[in-house]
Amino acid sequence: MNEINVSMLAPLLPEVIMASAGILVLLVELVARRKETAGLLSIAAVAVAAYYVPHSFGKSFGGMFVSDGYSAFFKFIFFINLILTVLLSMRYLVIEKSNHGEYYSLVVFSTLGMMLMASAGDLIVLYLGLELMALSSYVLAGFIRHDARSSEAAVKYFLLGAFSSALLLYGITLVYGLTGTTDVSLIGAAVVEKGLSTPLFLSVVFLMAAFGFKTALAPFHMWAPDVYEGAPTSVTAFMSVGPKAAAFAAFGRVFLTGFGSLSTDWTGILVVLSILTMAVGNILAIQQDNIKRMLAYSSVAHAGYAVLGIIVGGAEGLAAMMNYLFIYGFMNLGAFAVVIMLRSEGVRGEALEDYKGLAKTHPFAAAVMLVFMFSLTGIPPTAGFIGKFYLFKAVVGAGYAWLAVVTVIFSAISAYFYLRVVMYMYMLEPEGEAVTLSLSPSLGLALLITTLVVILIGVYPSPLLSFARLAAG
Amino acid sequence: MVEWFFGYLAGAVILLAILVVASRNPVHSVLWMLLMFLHVAGLYLLLNAEFLAATQVIVYAGAILVLFLFVVMLLNLREEIKIRRFTGGWLFKGLTALGIIYVLRRGLEGFRVGFEGPWSIEAVGRATHTRALGQVLFTEYILPFEIASLLLLVAIVGAVFLSKKRLR
Amino acid sequence: MVPLYWYLWLGGVVFAIGVFGFLARRNIIIMFLSIELMLNGVNISLVALSHYMQDLRGQILVFFIIAVAAAEAAIGLAIIIAMFRNRDTLHADEMAEMKG
Amino acid sequence: MQYYLLIPLLPLGAFLLNIMLGRRVIRRQAHWPSTLAVAGSLVVTVMVLLDVMSGRTLNEDLYVWIVSGNFKVSVGFMIDQLTAVMLVVVTSVSFLVHVYSIGYMQDDPGYYRFYAYLSLFTFSMLMLVTANNFLQLYFGWEAVGLCSYLLIGFWYEKRSASDAGKKAFIVNRFGDFGFGLGVIMVFLTFGTLDYVSVFDGAGGVAAQTINILGADVNLITLIALLLFCGAVGKSAQVPLHVWLPDAMEGPTPVSALIHAATMVTAGVFMVARLNPIFSLSPVAMDVVAVVGAVTALFAATIALVQNDIKRVIAYSTISQLGYMFIACGVGAFGAGIFHLYTHAFFKALLFLCAGSVMHAMGGEVDMQKMGGLKRYMPLTYWTMLIASLSISGIPPLAGFFSKDEILWVAFNGGGVGRAVWALGTLAAVLTAFYSFRLIYLTFHGEFRGTEEQRHHLHESPAVMTVPLAVLCVGAVAAGWIGIPPIISSVFGVEDANWFAEFLKPVVGHPEIEAPHSTEALVMGFSVAVAAVGIAVAWVFYIRNREIPAVLARRCGILYRLLFNKYYVDEIYNATVVRPAMLIARYVLVGLSDGVIIEGVVNGVPALINRFGARLRRLQSGLLQSYAAVMALGLFLLMAVVVMVLK
């Protein structure tokens, strides 16, 4: 154990690549004339890192770092999130007059934090990964320095994020005190040995609150709508997928490996949180007339669906959750891509009103948005349906048929606000001046990828399903 | 004897913490905080963690709090002292906090540590605390240590970026 | 010998005072200070646990918490400065452009 | 032999191409992708047919979409003799319709849209016939319905057209509802939706009954009848036939496609495809046969007095579909498919001829205003004459062989067989009569239209007449592959009913033990009655043109009954449509100011809204209250834990 050598870094190769890339991007940004170079460099780094992910399975640093199928699957979500976000951002940052190269290195560092979270076999690594991810995203949320909304979002995100970190630390402290370790699998063993006690359950509650914050589970979701609305849209897209997925990754690993033996005790609480989340997310989304804010509430609601995977537990539940998050990533980023496309000089393009008659003025944009709205609703043959279907299947299979029914009801409610966007685009006449699209090649590429994947997974889901199933172990 | 020390330190810490939260003037809050940190460092000494006590004083009090103080001074608001300190519903919020204290008290009553480690006071004493901590930190915990270094890098980048003079 | 429970309770009280400050104060900087209080509550508990378990890992965690707190302070204060430039206020309840 | 996939995929590709690029890029060239695609499908179909004829059938799941326990949604294809025949019919008729439409639709502003829908229609039908499971069948079924709605209402600016589209859609919903229930019953009963597994398991549940409202119902009968509901709707059988005549509002090529190949035949195909289920339930079989026979006669009587050229043909389609169900009902599924196949040719021909006539007449459909067109459009005349002879069952044209086979098996069918045969034969007389009434009114005598119309009269362009000629060949010769032994033996060929032999592995073939003399008698009888029908028509409309009017006056009630199509539409209006509207208007609208609507329809959203508004206030934008909600949540969770565990 006391021997430290380079070979210990082998399982961390993708992380090492990403860390180097982050620093490199920082340096390149100083000399590069076009800031997009930094973005392209980060995409290249992701490509290299992604190549090494399947080649670097194993444990390292005494089990603190675990690179397995589970983490690999999530890392792919993070990579896709990064690539698409960078593609979305290139033109958007120019429009927002905030085209600074630091953006890309922060995105890379944030992704690195997520990767560490997904691979964390130890609560300390988990905490540090989470902070790395969070600190980068605080800055990203406030990236448009001259915009009051962006700053406000950053302050809210930061303070509440720090608050939730404190909760996480208190939880970790209690667990450490009760089990004498911070290693997740050793915690699992100790919990089995010692059984349930009040302090242990309190620590479970603290951790649940902390993860609930990051995944935006009600009642810890309050930050999400404000932050998502205020942050630069590209960052909102980034935050609504990556950190959420990373938090779910950690949530799943800690709760199912660490506290798996107590699952009968904590699933009840989680069921309540899940229903509450779905209710709050969907009901409040109906009230919105700002599409970013609507998507923020929708993101809350989707967390409520995804957490069902942890409630179900086991490989089946985890696979359903991973599958769902993967699909959610594509459809959500796609929807945000459309929102970004409507943002142009002087026009914010976030109001639902701006979508009136879009089908007449910009039929392709409308059609693409239609696909994403259908997918978010869960209408076949889009990917969203597949995600929901397997989630329901897992939930029913675990004997929570009533919970599946509740979820379906909330899904039906969600159709109201997703399809309202479709209604605005297709049924209403454009008002006033038509919105101009700011379509750049990179944004077009992002839209193409997301649309294709959403449809492809919708009609041919089995590779993704078997991948998720394999990864969940 | 130790109990008396503990009693003093704990009482002071709680009192100072309340003062931090209750002071009208942010500068005073920061200064109470500074004092509180010194008492916390005292608690660390009581628990045979001299290195952490030093860190608490040097890093926490010496660096972080000074940064706070600096910002408070930078953004100094004279009218701050005259307006309301608390948000609406602070009583309710106070009850929530009291509730948390109560629940923690009830919940932690029967707390038993789950583990006996190799680092008894004697063992730490033999190695000296700094060396013992360093040994664990730079072997077992080298990975978190490296992550922390990246964290600080991000902090520098972010802080510099955000507080640069406005340039569009 | 001071019982461990005393330390834990002290940590919990400091933590809760921090929670209260965070919930009730209007000034953003004091809210941030309250978070530092919460972290100190955690740290006290951790060092105590570490001591009573004769294990150094808790203290290592404290070390990392302090490091992260430093990073957090840097970024948080920078964000607050940026916010102050845009809004000219340090009161959290005066920034509610986004709501609903 | 994965190349068979091209058959549905080519039209699908053409659809996508036209719908995406049609308006901006392809525009007036929209016929190219669609026509080429369906031509490609036709070529591949022929290859598949050859494969199947050499004994290579196939049934495979191409890919599984979702699996959950027993429930599997997969896309799979079953290519066997039945499918091959259907593919030939669908692709060839569809191809000719595509070509014909180039001329017919040339000035239409929605040209690309028309071709896009046409391709989608063809694709849906191809998916329907190649399915290897009920779900895909259902998908094709619904998709066909949707496409028919789009195409019938193609000229949606025209109120009657969009109404007709809606009517087709809604009436089909009634049938599809039963069909959907049937599919669900199949799944509940067999736990799978795969054809082969269901057919294998069908024998095992043949005797099971389930209790519905106190009555024991045979499970298979129930399933078969529910499924048949769908066929009644889609194949326009009584009492759900009302949509088909109105469907004339669509462009004429669409009518040809709907009537000949892609829509109404789906019901017959479905019954034939599911013959292992139907065969197990004598009750269901009798129902099928009787519905078919009643429809055959019923529609034929209406066709006698209609003046709209397309309506006459529409009712003739309904009537002919009745024949196909007669065949299925008496167990001769092969004969039903045979008639479907020959009917496709002469019916498509009739429609395209009618379209040609209308084209020349400037859109006129009233036969009273035609007459004497023979001189102006000889090719149309001759081809239509041949089609009429074929539908009347005059040997040796295609219609003769298929209709004769149906009547012959019905005659020997036992049970309801004889009665069905009698109805069918009666309908055959009427068929001959109305077909030739149409010919005489349209092409003979002198022109009764306006001077302007006369000036405009012309033969259609080659792009329209060539398909006529091709179909004409089919209407003549298509039947020659199913010649009954009694005739072929005259020419020294012992077994010439290749068609029946070909389909035998899929649908079986009833063995009939009856003397040749009887068969000759039955056959001769039906030819004779057809001849009588033609002769009567000649007397009525050429020789002495007073008779129809006199007759109409004498039998006023009967005439009006027929002319108004037995008032079925009116009855439906009075019993279904009007009450539904009334309920909608008075009950719903009336109550909307009152309690129920307020409470239920508006109430739930309002409740959600009000609740949402409350929740929204909680989301105040204030950092501290957010934290307070979090802290309160945490506190409550902790409190619950402490309470529960203490």
Tell me the span between the first and last alpha carbons of chain D: 70 Å
Order of helices and strands of chain C: HHH
Distance between the termini of chain C: 53 Å
SS-derived structural category of chain C:
mainly alpha
Helix content of chain C: over 70%
Can you offer a commentary on this structure?
The complex is a heterotetramer of chains A (473), B (168), C (100) and D (646). Chain A has one domain (2-472). Chain A contains 20 helices and two strands. Chain A has helices spanning 13-31, 36-52, 69-95, 102-119, 123-141, 148-179, 184-194, 198-215, 223-230, 233-258, 263-286, 291-306, 308-312, 314-342, 358-361, 363-377, 383-397, 401-427, 441-459, 462-471; strands at residues 58-60, 65-67. In chain A, helix 3 packs parallel to helix 14 (314-342) and helix 11 packs parallel to helix 18. Chain A starts with 12 loop residues before the first helix and ends with a helix. Chain B is 75% helix and 0% strand. The mean pLDDT of chain B is 87. Chain C has one domain (4-87): Helix Hairpins, CATH 1.10.287. Chain C has 100 residues and is mainly alpha-helical. Chains B and C meet through helix 1, helix 2, helix 3, helix 4 and helix 5 of B and helix 1, helix 2 and helix 3 of C.
Please give a handful of descriptors for the protein shown.
heterotetramer; A: 473 residues; mainly alpha; two-stranded antiparallel sheet; 20 helices; 2 strands; 76% helix; C: 100 residues; Helix Hairpins; elongated
Summarize the structure.
The complex is a heterotetramer of chains A (about 475), B (about 170), C (about 100) and D (about 650). Chain B has about 170 residues and is mainly α. Chain B is built from 7 helices and no strands.
